Amino acid sequence: MMRYGIVLILAIVWLAVSASYTIPNLVLGLIVGALVTFLVREQSGEAPKVRPLAVALLVILFVKELLLSAWKVAKLVLSPRMNLQPGIFSYPLKVSTDFEITLLANLITLTPGTLSVDVSDDRRTLFVHAINCSDIEAARRDIETGFERKILEAFR
Amino acid sequence: MSFDALFLQICGAIALVILSLSFMIVAFRVIVGPSLPDRVLALDTMTVVAIGFIAVAAAITGLVVYADIAIALGLVGFLATVAFARFIIASRQNGDDDTGNEEHVRK
Amino acid sequence: MIETLQNITAGLLLLAGSAFILTATLGLVRLPDLYTRMHAASKAGTVGSCVMLIALVFVPGADGVAGRVAAGVLFFLLTAPVSAHLLAKAAYISGTRLSSSSVADHLKTTYARDEAK
């Protein structure tokens, strides 16, 4: 079931990229999508539950945070004196599946002041580099009440 | 040429100047280093600057097919960075570490 | 009228995008160590290239480019954190040190420095 969904998504992407919205092109896109999923056999088991509204909220939050983070980096770089306290802190994960961990790590990387560096072998801890690491507890709380909660709401 | 079309051309010219400046700054980081990951990061950023150049070229000539080239360049740049990162990890594990760094060992 | 607005929006977006790219490269030079530089490159760089691509949507006479730009932007947003994460991990394993102003390093226990060598 998951596989047909992926083929459909790939076909839609194909339509968008080739910018010709015709039936023959859609069929071509479906064929290419089927070929790609045939070549990449290794697939994750079952599809996560998706709540469209929560996903939309997550996307909005993400875009806002992304613009904010680019702005903050710009301000930091242009300020004449940089008083940085960078560091790597560990973050205990509540999300458990590969999909959720990947999503959380990617979101953390594109948000203000944080960059995910590594995941422990047992997948319980995420190591995050922060540009301002003076208050580790606050940084952990930000992730926990922000993205992690939103991800749990969207995909559980 | 109407005023607004001229405005777009001027903005494009200014953007080209800013991007050229960025390109020189990145080139400085590629040359100076000091470590291999620094250079890989700078090359990655160079791809971003090149995407900017292509976008400006597309905007001031009106030939939006250039957008395809920018996206393809982004694809290739991503693959290059991933390949470099894996190379850094692999060269560390084989022991022939030429990254100019002290080594880490997994416990 | 619409064309006027399109031209002006595209021009301003081009300026904004190139400004973000400039700050990313300035960060690459000014910040103290690889990991902090990565912040600048991955965030400001991604936003910069995305904004410059979005500017193309507003160029008059650009038909059918919106879908491609949307796919491109989505692609950049998905790949930028992956390459940043992989490079940061590779750098840490290969022994790139954090700058001396760093206040914490919880990864230290996972990858111990090889003192014997």
From TrEMBL, chain A:
Q: Could you tell me the superkingdom of the organism this chain comes from?
A: Bacteria
Keyword annotations for this protein?
A: Cell membrane, Membrane, Transmembrane, Transmembrane helix
Compartment(s) = Cell membrane
Does the entry feature the keyword Transmembrane, yes or no?
A: yes
Q: Does the keyword Ribonucleoprotein apply?
A: no
* Family the entry assigns: Belongs to the CPA3 antiporters (TC 2.A.63) subunit E family.
Listed PANTHER family: NA(+)/H(+) ANTIPORTER SUBUNIT E1, NA(+)_H(+) ANTIPORTER SUBUNIT E1
The name under which this protein is listed is: Na+/H+ antiporter subunit E
Query: What organism is listed for this UniProt entry?
Result: Oryzicola mucosus
Instruction: Print the organism lineage.
Output: Bacteria, Pseudomonadati, Pseudomonadota, Alphaproteobacteria, Hyphomicrobiales
UniProtKB/TrEMBL annotation, chain B:
Provide the alphabetized UniProt keywords: Cell membrane, Membrane, Transmembrane, Transmembrane helix, Transport
Membrane-topology descriptor: Multi-pass membrane protein
Q: Which Pfam families match?
A: MrpF_PhaF
The record's GO molecular-function terms, alphabetically, read: sodium:proton antiporter activity
Do the record's keywords include Phosphoprotein?
no
One GO CC annotation: plasma membrane
**Localisation:** Cell membrane
Q: Where are the transmembrane segments?
A: 6-28, 40-63, 69-89
State the family named in the UniProt similarity comment for this chain.
Belongs to the CPA3 antiporters (TC 2.A.63) subunit F family.
PANTHER family per the UniProt record, alphabetical: NA(+)/H(+) ANTIPORTER SUBUNIT F1 (PTHR34702), NA(+)_H(+) ANTIPORTER SUBUNIT F (PTHR34702:SF1)
For this protein, the record's NCBIfam families field holds:
PRK12599.1-4
Protein name from the UniProt record? Cation:proton antiporter
UniProtKB/TrEMBL annotation, chain C:
Cite the Pfam families for this sequence. PhaG_MnhG_YufB
The UniProt keywords, alphabetically, are: Membrane, Transmembrane, Transmembrane helix
Q: Spell out the InterPro entries in the cross-references.
A: PhaG_MnhG_YufB (IPR005133)
* Superkingdom classification of source: Bacteria
Instruction: Supply one GO molecular-function term.
Output: sodium:proton antiporter activity
Does Transmembrane helix count among this protein's keywords?
A: yes
Transmembrane segments in this chain: where?
12-29, 41-59, 65-88
The protein's name = Monovalent cation/H(+) antiporter subunit G
Q: Which organism is it from?
A: Oryzicola mucosus
